[in-house]
Amino acid sequence: MLQVLQKFSVLGLPVHITAHYRDWLQSRLQQRQGTHVVTLNAEMAMQALENLDLAAVIHQADLVIPDGAGVVFYFLVRGRKIQRCPGIELAESLVQLAGDLGEECSTFFFGGKPGIAEIAAKRWQGELPGLAIAGTQDGYLSPEDEPAFKARLQQLQPRLILVGLGVPRQEFWIRENRHLCPEAIWVGVGGSFDIWSGQKERAPVWLQRLQMEWAYRLYQEPWRWRRMLALPHFAWISMKTALRQ
């Protein structure tokens, strides 16, 4: 039986709350219901305020999870405590599920710099011998090569497609191309391939528990500081709108 998702709003964007996202997605997989998963954080929410096309994609998604600490804070100042669901952890649980299902749930890794998706896929296959890798493709496709890639994806029909192109490019790409594999679960995974391939490290567990994973990412990628300004702005809007309500 498919679980019922509770739907809430964060700055006008949908967020779905359940204690068992993987179970919900497994049910969708078994029922061959195509699914677009968006991992919402404060930075994406602020982008969506300016980019109405991105906001539309988020509204059209089948599942929007509370990925970032900012989204958790948004609910907290409204008196509701929710559990954060990091997108990388949900993606990992889905890869593990695919490993259990084998050929029934072949997986495709798309995105990242040349070679990174392939390394990430091989690392997962080393941990999960039953994992069926449908294929890999880096995110540096030329416009001339993209039609052939899309035809390949359509022929393979993987059931789990992980897209690591960064926000909002991966969200737009999934919306425009999910018809190629209508029974697949599509997940925008951002920089997860970099972590799975060993190119980067995820924040220490103690920082994750303090909801400060963003600080470690800024430490690793100081060039992101302008984008990180969205976080205090999001916190201010969260408190201001809570007071109005």
TrEMBL record:
UniProt keyword terms in alphabetical order: Glycosyltransferase, Transferase
CDD domains per UniProt: Glyco_transf_WecG_TagA
Keyword Glycoprotein: no
Protein name: WecB/TagA/CpsF family glycosyltransferase
